[in-house]
Amino acid sequence: MATSTAPRQAARTGPPSILLKTVVAVTGLLFVGFLLVHMYGNLMILAGPEAFDEYAHHLRTFGEPMIPEKGVLWVARIGLLVSVLLHIWASMTLWRRAGGARTTRYAGKKKTSYGTFYAKAMRWGGLALLAFVVFHILHFTTQTITIDGAYASPAERVISSFSVWWAVLIYVAAMFFLGMHLLHGVWGAAMTLGLNTSLKRAEQIRFTAILVATVVVVGFLIPPLSILFGIID
Question: What is the Cα–Cα distance from 15 to 156, expressed in whole angstroms?
């Protein structure tokens, strides 16, 4: 009687992996849209403190008088929070499933260092970004953490913080992880959503991933580096 030499896997519970990957892809693309808008807002500091403070004020009063003050802002915050929780839940579930699958790898099968590198970069880089987001909120939004003093003016808060070299260093490190996450994430989202239909399309997706990652990282780094090196007084 023939017997199977492969280990028997336990029945998988929970949502199918393709659904989890779709959740990761869709929420990830929502984050890309948010990042582009947030990056544009940050670049307003180049127009001067008054312009940046006016931009920050309009974020709070957008939609008035039909919508209460900060109403749109809180809707956006709640939507982003839900997206973050879904993104983390789906990613961690896929991570655990991948770890379980590795325990049943056939004998003699070697894992590729290329795939392992990107998998670890996405996972640990994502955790690093999550830690930075918490720090970023505590720093600029609630001012629970202050660098070089607390200021009522958003522009003064930004300029004073990025006049400190180690604060800029934290920001640069976060942008490095963000760039890696976007580079692989945009590509992965396109694959999950079935956009890779030809070799030409694959090249277009690869170019788009590089372009998005580059624009976002450079756009976010311009204000802190400009402040640190005195381009913005």
Answer: 47
Q: What is the pTM of this model?
A: 0.82
| Residue of 50, 46, 39, 38 whose CA lies nearest to 156 | 50
Task: Let me know: does 81 contact 72? Beta carbons within 8 Å.
Answer: no
**Distance between CA 26 and CA 95 in Å, rounded?**
18
Contact between 118 and 21 under an 8 Å Cβ cutoff? The reply is no
- Residue that has been written with the tokens 């003093």 in this structure: 149
CA distance 15 to 92: 13
Mean pLDDT split into 10-residue runs, the chain, 233 residues? 47 81 94 94 93 90 82 89 93 83 51 58 83 92 87 92 95 94 91 90 93 96 95 79
Tokens of 131: 């830690």
Phi, psi dihedral angles at 139 (to 5 degrees): -85, -60
E strands in the chain: none
